């Protein structure tokens, strides 16, 4: 284990969140799930006006970005909302091209945040994304030099935030007699899973990163996560840290996705209801699907950590009246009419 007093690379250029985030013991949830032990890493409580684990990536990305930032995501993208909010406080403007997903209160709240803090171009369908991106880029050019940030901010520089998170967590549970066997995390753009894997390699920690797919398999898959991890290792070598893949392993679970990105599952709804009994608010797009995997993982692991990434305060955000909200809901409900009652 690395000494407590030093990080293997410089700290992030700016501070956006309050770290370390808490680690909670949940014996009642562990018993309900048939586990010996369950801890929850509360990255949803990172502070700032807008919490969530995306702050870790943004601490690295925003200082290197120009006045205009171009990105993409779903209508209810946590990444786009966090990016728009944090960038606005630094005097940077985010231009986001967004694709449809099933409508829900959390999608409405997240899109409200993105609209309030940035500029949005809505695609009426996935096929409309190239045009939406082109329109967003043209608008961004009017604000100055444009910095592109991919969906979820999954770049090696951003992933340093999750590497640091992995080291932070390893220090928090260091010396614990009931050693954890696996960390469960949602798998979207792959940055968090890749960073936690690299962090475990740096720390020399034998643990399994269980990444639960929440979006399309062509995008969220083992190959992508490992490629991001290897690119991050190359970046760390620039800081003089020659890290090689270690004993920590990666497992990707694809059976909890359901009908697709943003589509709730019954297992996810049950998981969210169970977590709520212990004061943990899960969104149905990411966290609930990952939490739903804990029962099946209990056959392989007895001591688990659930990495909570989503800021539950967003679930109660009032949706400001905005024409784009009505337009987005109309697009979503035309594509997923069964979701109109949600």
Distance between the termini: 47 Å
Give helix and strand order, one letter per element, not per position. Answer: EHEHEHEHEHEHEHEHEHHHEH
Helix content: 25-40%
Strand content: 15-25%
The tally of domains stands at 2
Please give the order of strands in the largest beta sheet.
1-2-10-7-8-9
Q: What integer value in Å does the Rg equal?
A: 19 Å
Please report the number of helical segments. 12
Q: What is the average of the pLDDT values?
A: 92
Contiguous low-pLDDT stretches (5 residues minimum) are 1-5
Going by helix content, strand content and strand pairing, the class is: alpha/beta
Salient structural properties:
342 residues; Rossmann fold; 2 domains; 10 strands; 15% strand
Describe this structure in words.
With 342 residues, the chain is of the alpha/beta class. It folds into 2 domains: 23-50 and 154-310, Rossmann fold (3-Layer(aba) Sandwich), CATH 3.40.50.1100; 66-148 and 319-339, Rossmann fold. The chain has 12 helices and 10 strands. It has helices at 27-33, 54-61, 78-89, 105-117, 129-141, 156-172, 191-203, 222-237, 266-276, 287-292, 294-297, 323-335; strands spanning 23-25, 37-42, 68-74, 93-99, 119-122, 146-148, 182-187, 208-213, 249-253, 303-308. A 6-stranded mixed beta sheet has the order 1-2-10-7-8-9, sandwiched between helices. Strand 3 (68-74), helix 3 (78-89) and strand 4 form a beta-alpha-beta unit. 52% of the residues are buried. The model is unreliable at 1-5 (pLDDT under 50).
């Amino acid at each position: 284990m690395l000494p407590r007093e030093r990080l293997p690379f410089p700290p992030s250029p700016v501070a956006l969140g309050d770290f370390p985030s808490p680690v909670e013991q949940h014996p009642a949830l562990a018993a309900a799930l048939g586990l010996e032990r369950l801890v929850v890493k509360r990255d949803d409580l990172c502070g700032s006006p807008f919490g969530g684990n995306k702050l870790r990536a943004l601490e690295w990305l925003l200082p290197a970005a120009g006045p205009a930032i171009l990105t993409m995501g779903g209508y209810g993208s946590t990444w786009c909302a966090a990016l728009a909010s944090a960038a606005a406080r630094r005097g940077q403007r985010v231009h986001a091209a967004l694709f449809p997903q099933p409508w829900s209160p959390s999608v409405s709240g997240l899109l409200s945040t993105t609209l309030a803090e940035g500029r949005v171009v809505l695609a009426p369908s996935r096929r409309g994304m190239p045009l939406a991106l082109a329109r967003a880029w043209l608008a961004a050019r009017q604000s100055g030099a444009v910095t592109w940030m991919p969906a979820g901010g999954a770049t090696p520089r951003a992933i340093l935030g999750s590497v640091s998170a992995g080291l932070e967590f390893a220090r928090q549970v260091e010396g614990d007699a009931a050693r954890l066997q696996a960390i469960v995390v949602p798998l979207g753009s792959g940055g968090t899973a890749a960073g936690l894997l690299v962090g475990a390699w740096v720390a020399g920690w034998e643990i399994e990163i269980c990444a639960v797919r929440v979006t399309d398999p062509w995008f969220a898959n083992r190959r992508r996560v490992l490629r991001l991890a290897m690119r991050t290792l190359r970046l760390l070598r620039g800081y003089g840290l020659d890290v090689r893949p270690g004993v920590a392993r990666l497992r990707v679970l694809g059976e909890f996705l359901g009908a697709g990105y943003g589509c709730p599952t019954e297992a996810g709804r049950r998981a969210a209801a169970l977590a709520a009994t212990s004061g943990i608010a899960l969104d149905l797009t990411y966290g609930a699907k990952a939490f739903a995997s804990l029962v099946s993982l209990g056959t392989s692991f007895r001591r688990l950590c659930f990495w909570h990434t989503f800021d539950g305060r967003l679930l109660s955000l009032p949706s400001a009246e905005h024409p784009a909200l009505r337009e987005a809901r109309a697009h979503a409900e035309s594509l997923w009419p069964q979701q109109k009652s949600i």
